[in-house]
Amino acid sequence: MAFQQAHLARAFWYLLEHLDRPEEITATFTQLGRDHRKLGVRPAQYAAFETALCEALRIRAGEHWTAELEQAWVRMVRFGITAMVRGAEAALHEPPCWEATVTAHRLCGPDLAVLRVRPHETFRYRAGQYTALESACLPHTWRPYYLAGEPGRDGDLEFHVRRTGPGGVSEALVRHTTAGDRIRLGPPKGNLALGEEPAGELHLVAWDTGWAAMKALLQELEGRLRPASEHRAGRVRLFLGADGLSSLYDTEYLTGFERSRPWLTVVPVTGGTPGEGAYDHLARAVTRSRPTAAGRALLAGPPAMVQTVTAALTRAGLPAERVRHDPLPAGPRDLPGPTGNFGPAGPRMFQGQSVPA
Predict the structure, then answer these.
(1) Which terminus has fewer CB within 10 Å in the chain: N or C?
(2) CATH of domain 98-185
(3) Which helix (H) or strand (E) holds 183?
(4) Distances in Å between the alpha carbon of 352 and those of 109, 114, 288, 293?
(5) Tens digits of per-residue pLDDT, 254-311?
(6) Is the domain defined by 202-324 classed in CATH 3.40.50.2300?
(7) Does the domain formed by 2-90 have CATH 1.10.490.10?
């Protein structure tokens, strides 16, 4: 239960940290309500949760609990729950989840697999988004993964999954899944997007299977450039970080893609200096390219990587609003992760890659 409790705690921290930005709470919890449909959660259960939560807080706080404090908690929780209910109701036109069949399973190493998956119904998403997957080996257990590339002509979707430890959805998908197996997909979500402005100076930064998101974004960018000369690409740099050269994968595809796209420069970043932070060498490589204030950066990877690179980019002169990534875990960093361990990065938001995972 430690992992579920940590997620609940982070939801509370998010509410507390964004009370002055109600529109952000509404957007986030509306998406959360849409996503929770795959778990079979109904509006009546939200009301029961609110009652149970207040009772638990009352018992935990003891003599420190007051009527004013209870009213404040109820208002805050009810605001989030109302957005979740509205999100669920607005998504009634789509399935709560999508049944799918694995059409291909390719091992790229002992702990890394690339899956091709064919949904039984149309699954619409945009480049840079992710979705949660459920393996038949682990019913009711979901982990998020980026969608790699655009849908194939046959409707297949591609996922990159890194096994990061024993048990869990990642191990089931890497080591216990073959072509023909059934899995389920949750609704797509995520904030990474190219936007409508020209590519200009664009930095794409990924760690390990965060490459899946960048693969999709590069394919979308190429699609824009091919028919429309007014969308001329500027300088696009892709930084791929990994623990070592052996951890880099999909290199044949990437080498061929770069060779025929003069607007793209790929920079693999591996290794590091003993004693420095885990992602300092990646941040150094990105800032060495001298980003300007007019540029943009899109990041996909573990929360600690995103934080390290974002801080380096802003110090180098790139405005914070020009750096985009998916939401980082809210609250203090010492909440337990999936295995109950504590660490500076907190629980990974995605698996396989590190923020969807």
Answers:
(1) N
(2) 2.40.30.10
(3) strand 182-185
(4) 13, 10, 28, 32
(5) 999 999 999 999 999 998 777 788 899 999 999 999 888 889 999 999 999 999 999 9
(6) no
(7) yes
